[in-house]
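Standup notes, protein team

Yesterday: finished cleaning the Nostoc parmelioides FACHB-3921 set.
Today: Penicillin-binding protein 1A structure.
Blockers: none.

Input for Penicillin-binding protein 1A:
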Amino acid sequence: MPPSNRYEQEETTNENLPPTQVVRQRKLFNQISGITSGIVTRFTSREHPFYRRVWFWAGLSVGGSIIAFNYLLGEIDKTLPDKAELQAVVREQTITIKAVDGTILQQQGEATREKINLEQMPEILKNAFIASEDSRFSQHQGIDPQGIVRAAVNNLRSQNVVEGGSTITQQLSRILFLKQERTVWRKLKELRLAHKLEQELTKDQILERYLNLVYLGAGAYGVADAAWVYFSKPVDQLTLPEAATIAGMPPAPSLFSPDKNPEAAKQRRNLVLQRMEKEGFITPAQKQEATQAEITLKPSLPKRLQVESPYFTSYIQQELPKYVSPQVLANGGLTVETSLNPTWQQAAEAAVTKTLRNQGRWQNFKQAALVAIDPRNGEIKAMVGGQDFGKNQFNRVTQAQRQPGSTFKGFVYATAIATGKNPNDTYVDAPFVVDGYEPKNYGETFRGTMNMRDALTRSVNVVALKVMLDVGFEPTIQLAKNMGIKSKLNPHYSLALGSNEVNLLELTSAYGSFATQGLHSEPHGIRRVLNRKGEVIWSANFDSKRVLDPTSAAIMTWMLRNVVEAGTGAAAQLPNRPVAGKTGTSDEARDLWFIGYIPQVVTGVWLGNDNNRPTYGSSGSAAYTWHEFMEKAVEGMPIEKFPERPKLAGRKGSIKAKPIKAKQILNRSLTPNEESLQEPGSSTRRRRRSQRLEEATPTDSPRRRRRYRSQESVSGGSEESPRRRRRRQVVQSDTSESPRRSRRSSSTVGNSSGSASSAPTPSWRERLRPNSSSSN
């Protein structure tokens, strides 16, 4: 049988042991049993329960503290940026716009204009900040308990806040990720962020970021900006007293700023020098000499407030929301890399300024605009939107809607060529009325039979309208839209002469399609957008699309080259480099245009007045401004040739023509006097005089220009005198005119198509009255 109790069991187990050892085991077993019974009795005693014991509450407090601490850390971490965000190098709520070479064009918010590497900063400056702000910077892990205690003691002794306990790492975390409110919660987040930053970044990275971002008063962010703002020198030229002055400002930039409180700044500087000596960064002699030095300021405006190319940067700010979400914009910290070429921009500004100063005075125009685009990718390389951005922020490149005049003829002739027409096809330049609309040439003269190429070269209005009648409104408008015209185009007869308003950017971009043999890229000025960490969040990816067949584009370039070589755009010629382009002048010379290109660049120029007042100038002034800019822009650029002119015979069209079916067409033969102008000798002399007027460059004197105009007014050349145009009452109408206006102008031929059918046929004198709104 098994033992009946534990003693019998023990006897059985130990029956083979010596008697003395058995006795010892029994005594030990009884003692353990007694102790265990006592403990159980105490726990279960009603007089002394366990929850009244000190050790219980001590253990509970420690465990609870650990749980609460971990919970608090978890709650703090939920509000902090993730690990990847800790690599941020710029503040929030900032936008920095850079040119293609990395130079800063504009900054918004608390941005650092000039960031420099730690190696570029002098040792005295780095040591001054370490001694002043965080003497144990290299020893702690983001939080310095000794520094906190020391600061508290010093503040109690002084009965004022004379020293802060925040480390450089804590200050950097506050600069990059936190607001400046004074709350316990913000301080806890600051401590936690400092610890995380120390885990992700090296000491050098932390110090470099801090010295580039810390606010140092007077609008200066970072030591490089401060060196410029207070002493007008680069950071590597700072003396010891100057470095100590700058290093003393972070605790209270407005209080210790030397330009506002020189005495307080001097006391703070001396304290920094004292700490530098204590830490062994300088000798007592150096400290004594620097302490006795006066603070000599040479103030300058903060570089971050400077704005380069303001018309372009304002355009970039308007474009940015198209590519970046509102939330990302609101958070800020963005760097926008643009396509602007600073060298070209300077050349563009110089060309516009020169034209306004010289030609603008006596030709009566006060504004000018210029834009240059790389047609191969659509990047904007230069943009001048007016005379003075400080006085008027209206951008005449992107915001001004003006009549393009004869520059629109490029789309009319391109449509005709694309339908299969031959540039040698002929038309008669003679008085012509279609549904009550009668175009007029400069000087009220006609040239008789001429081919399309010569008509484009001489910018003949009558032929341009007849060409559009053959190809139709719809194909012309559609091609212009495909090539880059975004403004509304109305199907009126005056469309052929450029009566529909467009802006300079879209017109220039559209002409770029000729330069790329029929490919069009969306014009844009932003290359990339980077976030605070330097990561690319958007990059330009505008694919080129085919808008015109290569053969037609090459033929158009061949025709437009002739405009520059032998026609109205002669002032735009460049030495040893092929140029193609088109001039344009709206009614009474209110708008003067030239859009020209080489294979690598397309540039557009507009001259005029914001109030739409007539000018005394000609499109030759715009062509000359183009020349002034391009002459500088092409320096060092390889010379590329345009493609050879394709064979003209046997071509098939890529666009289907949709001829306009007019209700009434009136043709009149040339008078004997007009026919005499077609004789070779007379015609040659006449064209030569006309060309001299149109090609006269702005370098010609005003007296010589006036003589050319006088000759033209007498001989009736291709360009009419601007003064003569202003004296005449010009009437233009198309199918959009109201019946009331048609009745008022019934004495002229410029009525709407509706009234023309019922009105009696006007006499030839009435038909010769000028009513065109656009010309060469």
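Follow-up from PR in the comments: The first strand starts at residue 95 and ends at 98.
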